Amino acid sequence: MWTVAEVLALYDLPFMDLIWRAQQVHRQHFDANAIQRSTLLSVKTGGCSEDCSYCSQSARYDTDVERQRLMPLEEVVAAAQAAKAKGASRFCMGAAWRGPKEGDLEKVLEMVREVKALGMQTCVTLGMLKDGQAEKLKAAGLDYYNHNLDTDAEFYGQVIKSHTHADRLETLEKVRAAGISVCSGGIIGMGESRRNRAAMIVQLANLPKPPESVPINHLVPIPGTPFGDLPPLDPFEFVRTIAAARITMPTSYVRLSAGRQEMSEELQALCFLAGANSMFYGEQLLTTGNPDVSRDDALFDKLGLRPI
Fold it and tell me: Which of 68, 100, 214, 232 is the most buried (most CB within 10 A)?
């Protein structure tokens, strides 16, 4: 069990020592030159009732995101086929809901079945789950459920007020109990302190079983949201967070997630060096941009990386 003081001590290490330690841990458990690639598709966009201060899809904020209905099954399958053809091994589907209604869940279950039939790993993020819904997702063949903690319990109320940190943990418990792998991480750069970042890492690492996949997102400030004008985080602090996640969760895939479009190749390389071994692949995340495929392929060539 990790303590906040122990993770803060990792953050406080000289940068080169921290990277060296993270690399040693990473190489004990993974091929240091292999990166898992996932593609993310928003299957239902906008109109969410929640008040997450970073999110362009909240109905409470005036952003450029237009509300869209749940995508037809054939369009989702076509997007998954295209992602697989480009080299993605996991297909993630996200819907802007507080939680899925039963009628909508049935449609998502069919999406999961069809994508799974393509030979891809499947992941969904649908918000908070009710009793029995995780079991239905498992039966449909779902591999991963994404539900980020976003930040630590202490800072959470400054980011989201329409539900609690405990609500998020409850959904993760349902997912784990159903036998689905957990994808859960956080967002860095929302005005939180280093202690908050360390506490979030501790909360993830000290779950009964750490998440199999840990997305570390760099906040993309969206005009119209409460966090739309926040200044960017120091990039070395972001790399330190990647390294802390790698050291404390040595067998988890640590995913370099939102905000990568704004990162230089050099910064991305530092993140991989610090232990990130997963990334979103494709030009679009849920509502924010991502580096195009050709740019990522060129970076893989420069660094001698291979996809898995």
Answer: 214
